[in-house]
């Protein structure tokens, strides 16, 4: 019978065994979330492009679920107290090389462990204050955005009302009289058809009247 473990780390854990990845690659990502609260750890893993980030994110979600369901803790009060990766089974394969030699191929695996614990009161107050400030800033941004949209909508409504008023005023204006001559492509066309004979008679009358006036003026000068 084995004795009790004296090096057991406190907290709620989740373990993934035999994942086909080297422990060194998993440790690079585990070092990023160690000591962070759960929400921050999730954000870090979401922005990490390594393959281990997706796997460790699932292990972290399992650890949080274990803490909530088994230990009755709140997910917002948890942080990653420990995160480590141990070496697993290494499969040895060989690749043929030149001159009858063989090259080694090591297919490594690892065991990933994530432990979450409850934050202490001092750090919990700091986290709550930071979350409250973030929520206030987000609320202020939403309010300013809604006000900006309301101002834009009011401006659009004013423009539409002004355009409708101008259109109604234009409809009320009386129509102007159509001129006798209407310009078409730069050429003036008379509104009524032109009588050529009448136009010639008017021209002759005007020329005759002008000659009579000149002869009258000449006779008056001679009499003088």
What does this structure look like?
- This protein has 224 residues and is of the alpha+beta class.
- It has a domain at 12-94 and 103-130: Ribosomal protein L22/L17 (Ribosomal Protein L22, Chain A), CATH 3.90.470.
- 54% of the residues lie in helices and 21% in strands.
- The protein contains five helices and seven strands.
- The strands form three sheets. It has a three-stranded antiparallel beta sheet with strand order 1-5-2. It has a two-stranded antiparallel ribbon with strand order 3-4. Strands 6-7 form a two-stranded antiparallel sheet.
- A hairpin with a 2-residue loop joins strand 6 and strand 7 (187-190).
- Helix 2 (38-46) runs antiparallel to helix 3.
What is the CA-based Rg, rounded?
48 Å
- Class from secondary-structure proportions: alpha+beta
Please count the beta strands (DSSP E, at least 2 residues each). Answer: 7
Roughly how many Å apart are the termini?
A: 163 Å
Largest sheet: 3 strands, antiparallel
**Annotation field: number of helices:** 5
Spans of at least 5 consecutive residues whose pLDDT stays below 50 are none
- Net shape: elongated
Short description:
With 224 residues, the protein is α+β, with helices and mostly antiparallel strands. It has helices at 23-33, 38-46, 51-70, 121-172, 196-223, and strands at 12-19, 78-87, 91-96, 102-107, 110-118, 181-184, 187-190. The protein has a domain at 12-94 and 103-130: Ribosomal protein L22/L17 (Ribosomal Protein L22, Chain A, Alpha-Beta Complex), CATH 3.90.470.
Question: How are the elements arranged and paired?
Answer:
Blueprint: E1 12-19, H1 23-33, H2 38-46, H3 51-70, E2 78-87, E3 91-96, E4 102-107, E5 110-118, H4 121-172, E6 181-184, E7 187-190, H5 196-223
Antiparallel strand pairs: 1-5, 2-5, 3-4, 6-7
């Amino acid at each position: 019978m084995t004795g009790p473990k004296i090096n057991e780390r406190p907290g709620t854990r989740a373990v993934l065994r035999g994942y086909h990845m080297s422990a060194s690659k998993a440790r690079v990502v585990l070092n990023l979330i160690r000591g962070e609260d759960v929400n921050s750890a999730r954000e870090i893993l979401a922005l990490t492009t390594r393959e281990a980030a997706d796997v460790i994110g699932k292990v972290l979600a399992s650890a949080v679920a274990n803490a909530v369901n088994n230990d009755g803790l709140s997910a917002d009060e948890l942080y990653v107290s420990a995160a480590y990766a141990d070496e697993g089974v290494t499969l040895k394969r060989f690749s043929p090389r030149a001159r009858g030699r063989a090259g080694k191929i090591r297919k490594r695996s690892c065991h990933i462990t994530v432990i979450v614990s409850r934050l202490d009161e001092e750090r919990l107050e700091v986290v709550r204050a930071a979350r409250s400030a973030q929520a206030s800033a987000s609320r202020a941004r939403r309010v300013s955005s809604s006000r900006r949209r309301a101002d834009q909508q009011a401006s659009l409504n004013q423009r539409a009302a002004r355009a409708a008023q101008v259109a109604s005023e234009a409809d009320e204006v009386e129509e102007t009289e159509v001129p006798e001559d209407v310009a078409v492509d730069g050429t003036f066309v008379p509104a009524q058809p032109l009588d050529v004979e009448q136009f010639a008679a008017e021209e002759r009358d005007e020329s005759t009247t002008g000659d009579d006036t000149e002869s009258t003026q000449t006779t008056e000068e001679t009499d003088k």
